[in-house]
Amino acid sequence: MSPQAESEKTVSPAPKSRTRGYVMLGVKILVATVALTWLSRSKSLDFGTMKVLLERPALLAVDLAVWMFAGIFLSSLRWRILLTLADAHPPFLRVLRYQLIALFFNVVVPGNIGGDVLKAYYIARAEAPEKKPTILLLVLVDRLVGLAGLIGVATVAVALHGDVLARNPQTKPLVFTVLLLALGAFGGPVVLSLLMRLAGKPLDRLSSGPGKFSQLLAQLTKSVRLVSRRPLVLLAAVLVSMGIHGSAFALFATLTTQINGVAPDYAALAAIFPIGMLSLILPISPAGVGVGHVAFAELFKLIGVDGGATIFNVYLVGQIAPAMLGSIPYVLEKRTMPTPENVE
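^ thats the sequence. predicted structure below, dont judge the formating
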């Protein structure tokens, strides 16, 4: 085979990968469109309510304050804390700038490369080369910590008001759901760490294969070993994550009160909010659009409150729209952004 033919053979998967990515994006957009159309036609979603943020400047100010405090400041602080696991100590202002870029990239630029991965590459290229694998691995740790923080907020709500929720036949299942999630989020890593120590070399052999399962297992194994070395760092990151989701819940509860005109049962709302947000993790629509709307519509019915999809819509748009500000540091970033081929 000629060198030219060999070269063509080597680069040929890239167009296929991009095509597959565009097809998946198209499918996700279709899912979101179908879900939103169904909710709108069934009168479960009122797009006209979006103007509430413009008609009430104080509410818009609260929305932007939560976005800046939770979405930018606390998220950057959590990432900065986790970076110490890789012995990386970038200036906090630089981490803030990359967090803005990450949010912009997640919302505006479609593709397979998430903004979290991009900000990790920006950080890694300013550090010693040997730190790069650990920094990239922290992307997974950061997402798991975010998930743990979300479940932690729900656990606190159930711990404070579980007796009230358990007396209501409609909300009683929420108590058990949250407790199971808490058991998995906080007890799971401990059990997993113990199993990894017992498995030893067999686990290393299983995670060293070329298959996707082996690669996923290898990433998970490395993540657990990484955070188990410094548990206090992990605890600090989880507490910050709980602050992020607690702030988000405060905004969501405020929107519920303002849009519906009456204060909801905050204990019940605190129990369903994390469950609804967990639906956004499902990679079947862009940014959880449509999927999250349906989830909150059904969860609100469970606690006897109307307008779940509408309230979530206002919340989602109010937190996504400011991400456009990330275009400023994105454009001003002097270094060349890694392409999908480079990232992979």
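The chain has one domain: 3-343.
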